[in-house]
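Hi U.,

Before I forget, here's the chain from the pilot set. I'm dumping it here mostly so it's searchable later in email.
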Amino acid sequence: MAENSLQEKIRALPPELQEEVRDFVEFLSSRQTKKHKTKMRFGWQGALKNLGSQYTSVELQHRISEMRTGQDETPS
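Structure:
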């Protein structure tokens, strides 16, 4: 019933406003489909491979956290 009332409301609008509704619906549809088209890229994969022998993954996580916050989290 709610759908019919929406259609009735749209039909009651003047033609130029009906066109605006149509454009808005097309905009919403295109925005929804664009979100699903993008594939994730992993171009960074393996970029830090050479650091594996120097650091553990936990040490790297702490270092990244330090870099993000600008704080030194190394215990004194």
